[in-house]
Amino acid sequence: MPAWVIPWVSWHTVAVVVGLLLYVLATQGLQQRRPPTAAIAWVILIALLPYVGVPLFLMFGSRKRRRTVASAGPRERAAADADVNTDPLVALAQALRLPPPAAHTAVSLHADGQVALQALMQVIGEARSTLHICTYLIANDAIGRALVEQVRERVAKGVTVRILIDGVGGLSSWPMMRRLRASGARVAWFIPPLHRPLHGRTNLRNHRKMVLADGQRAWLGGRNLAAEYFEGADGRAPWVDLSVDTGGPLAAELDAIFLSDWRFATGEQAGPASAPAAPAAPASADIAQAVPSGPEYADDTLHALLLLACYRAHTSIAIATPYFVPDESLLQALCLAARRGVQVRLLLPAKSNHRLADLARGRALQQISAAGGQIHLYPSMLHAKLVIIDDEWLLLGSANFDSRSLFLNYELMIAFRERRTISACASWFEEHAGASGPWRAPAPGLLRNFGDGLLLWLAFQM
User: Fold this and answer.
1) DSSP state of 408
2) Pairwise CA distance, residues 328 & 303, whole Å
3) Euclidean distance between CA atoms 120 and 210, whole angstroms
4) Handedness of CA 359, 135, 307, 417 (dihedral sign)
5) What is the pLDDT of residues 418-447, one digit of tens each?
6) I need a labelling partner for 28 at 20 to 30 A (CA). Which of 133, 161, 255, 360 fits?
7) From CA 293, how far away is CA 423, in angstroms rounded?
8) Is 428 within 8 Å of 63 (Cβ atoms)?
9) Which tens digits make up the pLDDT trace of 196-232?
10) Does the CA dihedral 22-26-29-31 come out positive or negative?
11) Which secondary structure element, helix H or strand E, spans residue 414, and what is its range?
């Protein structure tokens, strides 16, 4: 054995031990809980290739931001003390320190891309004091150019425009960012990938999508600001997606979420909209719950609410999502619901824009189908994110049914209880499920089962 081998082995052992110790301290000391598959993958990578695994862990391994939990303020205490009819979902939302339920004006559902675009431009045009835009990407296409013109008009009328775009999702948005800055808007990147990469936040992406005028009007949902979400691109039909617009105190809650993200990204202590306050909502106004989730919360808020909703479902669970790769606990909750007689239905694209997600969903779909769930495959790209429980509780927004959305991303969903909106979304679901084909389980086999398991392990998304 060459003389240099023994020292190399010794240093390699030290690197492995230090790497694993760093992982344990970061995971346990900072309470960075993660799915078991992700934990196993990190440990194996660090043990086998510490010189690669440790730098990657420092760059991508953080799952939660360190924060100080403040005591509940007057508004939160009042909401906690209010009579909520002992609704377990509302009680859990309060325990998770989510924004309190808020009244909202009539909700307009945009199932059509042209309707969504018209509503978007209308909300932008209504801004008189502040215009806040949060999105994953802004494409250099007709939609992006129209946005620039609208922003330029608002700035010319004295509106303060703040635009927050994700540092990874917006990598292709650099030309639009330059034009938006030139128009007078304030533009910020949310955790650029090359900005202090060893700070541990590179893998935390902002997937929230909302446009807010004066803290009084809101446009939000699953659509990014690109042509494929509204009118189609490259001669192809637009993606099937959902967004809504509404107003009232709920819009003010969403504006507070935006300003919190803005402060994190820029360090600027921007205040709320200074426009005249909106008229007080009538006593009969509908109530909705903003459900932000992500690294700024100690708990996985959306995941926790989904688990509780699935276990408490009595008659039906309807889910529309482009990517269905749930963690084991959520998959188990859905399977158990189906086995106890709840109608569990999934609406997915037959082929999404992410091939890895299509391949990774196979084992989960097999378990749902075996438990008695129904799986509808829509023939074109479906990007809508929707959950309806018992036709009484609706979640709509930006989050997908995968580990990245549930455990890593900054996401935003809205929980509606208003009958008209739930009925419209249920009708949308039925229409698209009726135009879909059934999922058919592939032939079982040892090689296929091994491949599915390996794929899930490799695709844990850190």
Assistant:
1) I
2) 12
3) 10
4) negative
5) 999 999 999 999 999 999 999 988 766 656
6) 360
7) 25
8) no
9) 544 445 678 899 999 999 999 999 999 999 999 999 9
10) negative
11) strand 411-416
